[in-house]
Predict the 3D structure of the following.
Amino acid sequence: MKISKLNPTSPGCRHQIIINKNLLIINNIFIKSLNSGFNKNSGRSNQTGNITVWHKGGGCKKLYRKLNFTDIESTTITLSNCYDPYRNSFISLRFNLAEKKFDVVTMTNFVFPGSLSYSGIKFSELKLGFRTLLLNIPTGSFIHNLSLKKNKIIFARSAGNFCQIIQKREDLFKIRLPSGKFLDIIDIENSSGTIGIVSNLEQKQICLGKAGKNRARGIRPTVRGIAMNPVDHPHGGRTNGGMNPVSP
């Protein structure tokens, strides 16, 4: 994806940096059956209605796309790459050739429409987007959607993230996580991953440019506790007396 800096035709566009999503499809009739409504609570409790999570509320209406993370044995073809409002990475709409149905997965970088993807235990060759056990992936490879148990993805799911296989032994695998920490995997037979890096690597270079962009995403303004009154926050009233920072 190409990064563009807008011309300063207005104060909101002066510092705005966006990603041209010209390689993504706008509408797709097949994905409608895979969408579902999502009830927003705006940070409030369902029982009492009190605010339990600050800085949430408002925003545009969004549909939730349920992704398929439990794919083990399948042969699929990528039909299109789409935008997902609930994730910072892009998603791919695929068609399962064996089961004759559609599903949605996290988009792997450089996997374009028309690409064949395989998920299974053994392959004659490995390519981007293939999902298999860590036993079959060579040392030094970049992987994402790393799972240590069956049907449960734990690591490297957001935009631009990946893990790297550092060392493979008979009883232990050493993986470098996106945070830079090293993870020792003992349960080798049930650990799997997808080859490649999660899409939308330029996500960190985006500049919203104005506060209205955050409000459209459902993020309300953040106010410092010391700027509040004592009834609103323990830090309020500027009389905290050098106390340690606490939550509301």
